[in-house]
Structure formats: C-alpha cells, structure tokens
Design a protein that fits this description.
Blueprint: H1 24-55, E1 69-73, E2 82-84, E3 93-105, E4 109-113, E5 131-133, E6 137-151
Antiparallel strand pairs: 1-2, 1-3, 3-6, 4-5, 4-6
Biased composition (Basic and acidic residues): 9-21
Region (Disordered): 1-26
C-alpha cells in the first residue's frame, strides 16, 4: 500500500507522513518565551559582572617593596619592631632584640641562629639546629632568633 500524495501533489521522500502543523498561537508563545528568557539571562549576567567587579578588590594587608629588603621583626607575622639586615655583610651579626619572624626579599639567603654569635643548637643548648631564610621568603621562627649570617651564592 502506498503513501497518499501530499496536498500540493508532491511525493514524500521517505514515505513518512508530514508532521502535524502547529497552530500560530503556540509558535508565538515559544518565540516570546525565548525572547523573555534571553533578556532575563542577559540582565542576570550583567548584574553578576557588576557585583563581581565590586567584590574583587585587591587585598592590601601589606605593600610590597620596590627594592630589595630584609629585616627581622620582634613579633610573629612581621609585626613589632624591625631590625634591618645588611645583605652586603656576610659576617655574623647578633640581634639587639630577639626576633620571632623575618622577611628576605633579596637575592641572598640568611642563616638564622637561636643562640648568640651564630652558634647552632636550640636556645642555650648545643646542637645543629638553625633556620635558613631563603631568598624571596618570609617566616616565623620556632624559637626567638638571636643572631644571623648573610650567605651569597
């Protein structure tokens, strides 16, 4: 049994019948809905961009130096009084005050000792303990730092 010809007289290509035609109101509803969804999505995207730009402010807890800097600080997290480090002098230096943290934004390394006169060991005890504050680093110390030496490679 064959497929009846179309109303306009043309034959079907695959033998299937034409899909039912949609009424005009359904097509209009879908077009309007699509426009509304697109406009809503654009408005939400714009609002998100504005909100994100307002929230994305840089955190400025500390200003970064524009030149090499190294110093010891009497408190943790680089707080308290600062004692500058002469990065050109490789001699052992005793700190005037114990330091709990330091920053080294130079091209040298700093060996940090917990005894006077760059003696290794825990405070008041012999041993091989000391701390190395590498180039471009900062840190808190496990014990108060009492002396240091700058090491260039």
């Amino acid at each position: 049994m064959g497929v009846p010809p179309r109303a306009d007289g043309s034959a079907h290509r695959d033998g299937a019948e034409d899909p039912p035609k949609r009424s005009a109101p359904m097509t209009t509803f879908r077009k309007n809905r699509k426009k509304t969804l697109t406009a809503g999505a654009a408005a939400l995207s714009g609002a998100a961009l504005l909100l994100g730009a307002g929230l994305a402010q840089p955190a400025s807890a500390a200003d970064l130096p524009h030149a090499p800097v190294a110093y010891f600080a009497s408190g943790t997290d680089l707080t308290g009084r600062q004692a500058p480090v002469d990065i050109t002098d490789p001699a052992c230096r005793n700190l005037a005050e114990p330091a709990l943290s330091a920053v080294n934004l130079t091209d040298a390394d700093i060996q940090v000792y917990f005894n006077r006169d760059c003696r290794t060991g825990a405070p008041g005890r012999p041993g091989d303990l000391y701390d190395a504050l590498g180039s471009l680093h900062w840190g808190n110390f496990p014990c108060p730092a009492l002396s240091y030496r700058v090491v260039r490679h």
